[in-house]
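Note to self: user wants both folds in one dump. Writing first protein now.
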Amino acid sequence: MSETPFIRFDDVVKEFPRPDGRGTFRAVDRLSFQIAEGEIVAVLGKTGCGKSTMFNLLAGLIEPTSGKVEVTGHQPFVEFNFFRGRIGIVFQNDRLMPWRTALQNVLLGLQILNIGAKEADAVARRWLARLGLTGHENDYPHALSGGMRQRVSIARAFAVEPAILLCDEPFSSLDEMTARDLRAEFVRLVKQAGKTAVFITHHMNEAMDVGDRIMVFHRPARIAYEARMDAASKEGAGRQSIQNEILKVLSLEAGDEGSPTPAAVV
């Protein structure tokens, strides 16, 4: 894993107009962090803490009000076209096109990138096989289980060979057993392919299972706590200690939106 920051947020603020037209509200508050190449970072926080706004800033879907977002030295919103094929996204829902088969759904990104038909077909089939979907290439989404549809979604994201994978609560709609298996499979594939990943979740155990590092957000989005998840931190007393700290930090958020909590690093 390179020590050079692959992703950088530098004092980022994002404000939106209030629905009633009276001023703005702040969704992201002077957010700064760095992510190294090859790192999986899990972003944890309560609903409404600004995780998804951070995600949209990183994906280049919205522009920061102030501060700078950089990915591989480029600004996602300003240089949106530069990131075609460089960022893969896995959403909470699989977002498969119901009129396309599993294979055709995985082919979509490759077709957008104008990859030759023969090569694209081989790549799509290979990723479906790696996700355990051999024999289901010609099935339509309605014929697949929720877990299988999300596997197709993951295959679609990996197939374009992105440098970065952004995941917005991708397993939250699945039963726990299926989600657990897919989490392990996702981490294995990211590590094998040498990708960098940002994984948003509101489940503490999921963050601890997936992340090399956890960032806990308070609202408006700011880092209240960080923990590095080495082998010793993923089980036993080390895991329990981090769980206790996360619970403590999250419990402080209610009624304390005005003042940031100092970040702690484990």
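First done. Writing the second protein, which came from a different request thread.
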Amino acid sequence: MTGPSTSKPIALITGASSGIGLELSRLFAAGGYALALSARRTAELNQLADELKTAHGTPVTVFPLDLSQPGAARELWTQVEKANLQIDVLVNNAGLGITDAFVATDPAALETMLRVNMEALTMLTRYALPAMLQRRRGRILNVGSVVGYQPGGPGMAVYYASKSYVLSFSRALTVELRGSGVTVTALCPGTTRTEFEQRAGEKAGRLFRLMRPMDARTVAMAGYQGLHAGRAIVIPGLFNKIMAVAGELPPRQIALAVNRILLS
């Protein structure tokens, strides 16, 4: 499905069919953006496009694509270029999580998660940046997690590490791009009512039972507002802010031990 040409700014949002990505899509549509939406599930993506067109008259182009496949980020960007879309805002929201001991995890599942959480996010940012820099304007929102502040997550080792990558990558780009007219914002929520959190919560033990999940709309609003304010990092919720600070305090072995208990 391809939307009509438009003079509105265009936001490209990955993982748009559910959770935080769905709510971000609604916020950008209400904010006057045209949308380029990508997700694996074609039916849900088309349904969302119809909803946004009806509610806001939003021009929408959909790209049903699985970013866990090799070369998918390049394919998505090729399709965006073929559609002649000038991306003003890139929202790297797509993400996967695995809750299990590292040695018990299927290697193929690990590769899938790394492609989505790190490779696709990195490469889409690389593809989008040159045109943004040439125009001297643009915004990038990378959806990470408050666990990126933690020294590690025994029982979710690769997921925690991938979110640390998102945070480190975003922080570095913020400095590199200073004065360029392009901003990078890392959104680092805690547990959120999404399909991923529901699946993870079934296996992740104490952490997901003890923490009260935020709703996806609240998290998306925090990210949307932080992005437009040019903030480098957005951590929704007081408890999540405390977790972020605690995760960076020495000695880090204590945080590792606590995380092992919470994830068991």
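Dump finished. Worth passing along: Residues 107-135 form the longest helix (29 residues).
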